């Protein structure tokens, strides 16, 4: 209840902040993009995780204005980085409710044009739950594609959608869920699942991003099996804008 009341005021009180986690080319360790992750600094309760407040924001409808803030903030940030010579894409998490909102496409278009951004710098991450409404999703993803925006499927493998369903949607990127990456080195079944996702994903021309990489061994396994981009604590936790700028100004994350 405290979360619910606080959420309504959080936007006006400027209590949200975007953190950024680098997406890395595994071999060279160069940063190829960043994922924006929302943080809420509550004046009394301290930092509240999106795992706690996003579900509340979804059930109260607050996810629409909050999600709007996230996209606008990300676009402003890309613009700022561009003017300082850093050309990097930002991946933004989008809730299914936000994705289905009638003003969503308008919001995306406006955020890009207000910041004079080429669409390729924005990537939208949706979860497999969005795909349950396949017809509606198809239309929205199609519109995003027409704008020139990349769409990725987040947490792939944890939901019910198969690669064959995905192959009928104009999706660009598959993000292999971190639970697979965590288990794949000590569980041969998980290793096979990861190999299969990578192989089928590549054959269907998806880009692949592995999540939750924490060890060099995991990174090597992924490279050997054909997944070349990843993110995880091995490279960096999600960090503040100030800290990500330091990383972006380096050649690579190490
Ligand atoms: O860094 P991490 O603990 O932040 O993120 C926790 C969860 O919250 C993840 O599932 C992530 O996708 C989700 N999340 C992070 N930022 C956002 C956001 O801006 N919008 C939505 N809808 N989910 C987010
Ligand atoms: O959007 P998504 O559901 O993929 O959110 C990513 C979540 O995973 C965030 O909570 C982020 O902080 C977390 N995360 C990112 N890298 C790692 C990692 O290497 N290990 C673990 N355990 N979590 C990670
Ligand atoms: Mn994500
Ligand atoms: Na994920």
Automatic annotation (TrEMBL):
UniProt keywords, alphabetically: Membrane, Transmembrane, Transmembrane helix
Membrane found in the keyword field: yes
Cellular component terms per the entry's GO annotation: membrane
EAL domain sequence ranges: 1-252
Superkingdom of source: Bacteria
UniProt keyword annotation of Cell membrane present: no
Protein's recorded name: EAL domain-containing protein
Origin species: Siminovitchia acidinfaciens
Organism placement in taxonomy: Bacteria, Bacillati, Bacillota, Bacilli, Bacillales
Covered range of the whole protein: 429 to 682 of 682
